[in-house]
């Protein structure tokens, strides 16, 4: 049995009510739920929240409600404990879990095809996780940090290295994470040699943590919607 878990806390501060705020005509969380449904990969899709409105909106768009305890709904709660709680609840119902996919509620650019690819990659021998990733737009090995009134290189040994000779670096796209129930419960590292990246183009990756992020995501959505099919 494969399940999706969409964590959606009600107390977002920087963008109030962002999980249910309208984005492209739908509550933000609806985009993740629609992609999960369209992927055809999941036997059940759970919305984990302490918030009545979020749970109701989740049900309207194909999710089932899973009320999380208050201690897993504060500003400092990480994702993994929320997923572990949901897995524990599902196993208590007698569900024979094969794989669990965490899909973030603020991932309007997540695609059903990417979720299907993630499942295929998770089935490779030795994999604990499969997650959405993309490339950095600039070589991270030539990155700088402020120091006093100036800067210093993070990797000074690469000052003479040409950009095209540096390895390509990836980063988490912040959309979804397929994992085995064991890996989630034992809190294995999501990013390791046992985690397969589902590569996304950079133009379909946008964190949404601030109002500026939200505005950029809206602009990106309109640009993608205007592309010829």
Tell me the number of helical segments per DSSP (H or I, 4 or more residues long): 6
Q: How is the largest sheet built, in terms of strand order?
A: 5-4-1-6-10-7-11
According to CATH, the fold-level topology is Spore Coat Polysaccharide Biosynthesis Protein SpsA, Chain A
The ordered H/E elements are: EEEHEHEHEHEEEEHEH
Query: Total domains, how many?
Result: 1
What is the CA-CA span between the terminal residues?
Answer: 34 Å
Arithmetic mean of pLDDT: 95
Largest sheet: 7 strands, mixed
From the helix content, strand content and strand pairing, which structural class follows? alpha/beta
What is the assigned CATH homologous superfamily? Spore Coat Polysaccharide Biosynthesis Protein SpsA, Chain A
Strand proportion, as a percent range, falls in 15-25%
Could you list the spans in which at least 5 consecutive residues all have pLDDT below 50? Answer: none
Task: Give a verbal description of the structure.
The strands form three sheets. A seven-stranded mixed beta sheet has the order 5-4-1-6-10-7-11, with helices on both faces. It has helices spanning 28-39, 52-60, 79-92, 112-122, 181-185, 211-226; strands at 2-7, 22-23, 26-27, 44-49, 64-67, 99-103, 129-135, 144-147, 150-153, 170-179, 195-199. The protein has one domain (2-132, 170-226): Alpha-Beta Complex (Spore Coat Polysaccharide Biosynthesis Protein SpsA, Chain A), CATH 3.90.550.10. The mean pLDDT is 95. By secondary structure, it is an alpha/beta fold. α1 packs across α4 (112-122). The longest helix has 16 residues, at 211-226. The two termini are 34 Å apart. It is built from six helices and eleven strands.
């Amino acid at each position: 049995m494969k399940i999706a878990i969409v964590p959606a806390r009600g107390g977002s501060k920087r963008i109030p009510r962002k999980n249910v705020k309208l984005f492209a005509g739908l509550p933000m969380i609806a985009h993740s739920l629609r992609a999960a449904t369209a992927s055809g990969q999941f036997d059940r899709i759970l919305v984990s929240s302490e918030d009545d409105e979020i749970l109701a909106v989740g049900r309207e768009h194909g999710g089932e409600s899973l009320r999380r305890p208050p201690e897993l709904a504060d500003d400092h709660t990480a994702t993994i404990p929320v997923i572990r709680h949901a897995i524990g609840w599902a196993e208590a119902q007698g569900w024979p879990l094969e794989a669990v996919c965490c899909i973030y509620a603020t991932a309007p650019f997540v695609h059903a095809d990417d979720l299907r690819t993630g499942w295929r990659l998770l089935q490779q021998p030795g994999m604990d996780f499969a997650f959405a990733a993309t490339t950095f737009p600039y070589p991270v090995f030539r990155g700088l940090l402020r120091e006093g009134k100036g800067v210093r290189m993070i990797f000074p040994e690469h000052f003479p290295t040409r950009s095209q000779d540096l390895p390509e670096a990836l980063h988490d796209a912040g959309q979804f994470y397929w994992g085995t129930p064991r890996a989630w419960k034992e809190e294995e590292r999501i990013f390791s040699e046992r985690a397969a990246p589902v590569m996304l183009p950079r133009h379909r990756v946008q964190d949404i943590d601030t109002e500026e992020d939200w505005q950029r995501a809206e602009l990106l959505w309109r640009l993608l919607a205007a592309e010829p099919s």
